[in-house]
Specification:
Length: 403
C-alpha cells in the first residue's frame, strides 16, 4: 500500500522541514513529492522517525506487578507490546536479566521470556528484541546466551556486574568503586549487619530471606576468579554473531578499556565523568537513561543526562524503567534548550539505530524502513504520540487522519 503524509513538520537528518513523506511496500520512497495513494493529514503535527529503545525493563512490572505476584508471560508481553506502540517505540530491546538469583531475574525465567517473545511474534505490533542483560557471575546463562544469539532477531549483550557492586566495601559509594576485576577492588564483609539492609530489595525480589540471600551471594562470590574467562567467552560468541555489546554502569576508564578490548563499543549508563570521557576519547557510543533526563537528574546520584546531552556526550537515550520517559526527556531537554530538536530526536532514533547496527531504520531517508510516528507537540504542552507505523503498517492510532 502507498500512503503519503501531508502537511507535517518532518524531522529529517539534521533538519526539520515542512514537506511530504511517501511510503510504499514498507519503505520510504519519496520526500517532498506529490500525494500518492492514501493521503494521511498531518497538518500542525510532526512526522519523525519512530523511537528505538535500546534498554527497557519496564516489562518487569507487567510480569510481577507486586513483589512475588506473577502474571502469565503472554499477558505481560502483549500488554508491554501495546505500551511500546502507544509510546512511539517500534524497535524495543527488552533488558532481560540473566542472573544467578532465583525469581524474576533468574536465568531460567529469562530463557522462558526469550522463547515467549519468539512464540508471540505474529501477535505483537512492534519489533520486540532482547538485550541479554547478563550478570557476569551467572555462568549458568551461557547456554541461554548462545540460544538467543542464534535466534531470528539478533539481540544485544549487556555486561552487568551487580554482584561486585553489592560486594563493594561499605564506605565506598557505588559511583566511586574501582573496576570490578581490579585487585584494588575493596570488598565488604558478608557478616556485617549492613549487608542485610543493602540486599533487602534484592532478597524480596528473589523471594528469599535476607539470610538465605546472603548465603547464596557468598557462594556465588567464590566464582570471582573465573569471571574474566567467562566474560571473554561471552564476548567472543557475541562478536562472532555480530551482536552489539554494552558495558553497564561504568565508573572507571579501566572498565571501559577492558570491555572495549573485548569488542564492546558502547558505554551504557556510565555513572561518572571519568567513564564518559574514556568512552568519548575512544569514539565509543554513550547511552544514558531517559528517566534521568526527564526527572532532571539521576535517582542514585550519578551524572546528569541533561548535562551530557548539552555537552554532546550522549549518543542515545533509553527508557530504562519507564517507556514514557523517552518523550518526556526530550520535552524537558527542549524546554531547557539543551540542544535543538533535530539533535534531541536523534537521541531516540538514529543514535540508537547506530548503536544497535540497525542500518535500515532510525531516520527519514529514501529507502529506510518506514518506522514513523505522528506527534502532537503543541507549544507549552507535553508531546503526545497520535500514530505509530512500523514498516508502513499502523501499529497505533488515536485519531483518523485520512483525507
Amino acid at each position: 500500500m502507498t500512503q503519503t503524509f501531508v502537511g507535517a513538520e518532518v524531522y529529517l537528518p539534521g533538519e526539520i522541514v515542512n514537506t511530504t513523506v511517501t511510503v510504499a511496500d514498507g519503505v520510504i520512497v519519496e520526500i517532498g513529492g506529490a500525494v500518492q495513494g492514501l493521503e494521511i493529514s498531518a497538518h500542525d503535527k510532526i512526522v519523525a522517525p519512530a523511537i528505538i529503545d535500546v534498554h527497557g525493563d519496564a516489562f518487569e512490572r507487567q510480569l510481577m506487578p507486586r513483589p512475588g505476584v506473577y502474571f502469565p508471560k503472554e499477558v505481560a508481553l502483549i500488554d508491554t507490546d501495546r505500551q511500546l506502540a502507544a509510546n512511539g517505540i517500534t524497535t524495543a530491546y527488552h533488558a532481560i536479566t540473566l542472573g544467578w538469583e532465583p525469581g524474576l531475574r533468574n536465568v531460567a525465567r529469562g530463557r522462558e521470556l526469550i522463547q515467549s517473545i519468539r512464540d508471540l511474534a505474529l501477535r505483537l505490533t512492534v519489533e520486540n528484541r532482547v538485550q541479554l542483560r547478563w550478570e557476569t557471575f551467572a555462568f549458568e546463562a551461557l547456554d541461554v546466551i548462545e540460544l538467543a544469539l542464534k535466534g531470528p532477531l539478533l539481540p544485544s549483550v549487556g555486561f552487568n556486574d551487580h554482584t561486585s557492586m553489592t560486594m563493594r566495601a561499605y564506605d565506598v559509594p557505588v559511583q566511586e568503586r574501582e573496576f570490578e576485576l581490579s585487585p584494588e577492588f575493596s570488598i565488604a564483609s558478608l557478616d556485617d549487619d549492613r549487608m542485610k539492609q543493602r540486599i533487602l530489595s534484592k532478597a524480596q525480589r528473589a523471594g528469599l530471606s535476607q539470610e538465605d540471600y546472603i548465603a547464596m551471594l557468598g557462594k556465588v562470590w567464590e566464582r570471582r576468579s573465573e569471571v574474566p574467562n567467562k566474560i571473554s567467552e561471552v564476548a567472543s560468541r557475541a562478536s562472532t554473531a555480530g551482536a552489539p555489546m554494552l558495558s553497564h554502569d561504568d565508573t572507571r576508564a579501566d572498565t571501559r578499556a577492558y570491555f572495549r578490548n573485548l569488542g564492546s563499543s558502547i558505554a551504557e549508563f556510565p555513572m561518572v565523568m571519568e567513564a564518559v570521557e574514556a568512552a568519548r576519547n575512544h569514539e565509543d557510543l554513550i547511552i544514558l537513561g531517559a528517566p534521568n533526563a526527564a526527572r532532571g537528574g539521576s535517582h542514585i546520584g550519578s551524572i546528569g543526562a541533561a548535562d551530557m546531552v548539552e555537552a554532546g556526550l550522549c549518543d542515545a537515550l533509553a527508557s530504562d524503567y519507564f517507556y514514557p520517559a523517552m518523550l518526556a526527556a526530550i520535552d524537558r531537554l527542549d524546554r531547557e534548550k539543551r540542544a535543538d530538536r533535530a539533535t534531541l530526536w536523534s537521541l531516540l532514533s538514529s543514535g540508537p539505530a547506530r548503536a544497535m547496527r540497525l542500518n535500515d531504520r532510525g531516520s527519514i531517508t529514501i529507502g529506510s524502513r518506514a518506522d514513523l510516528v505522528l506527534v502532537d507537540w503543541t507549544k507549552g504542552q507535553a508531546p503526545v504520540i497520535e500514530g505509530t507505523w512500523i514498516a508502513g503498517r499502523a501499529a497505533y492510532r488515536i485519531k483518523n487522519h485520512l483525507n
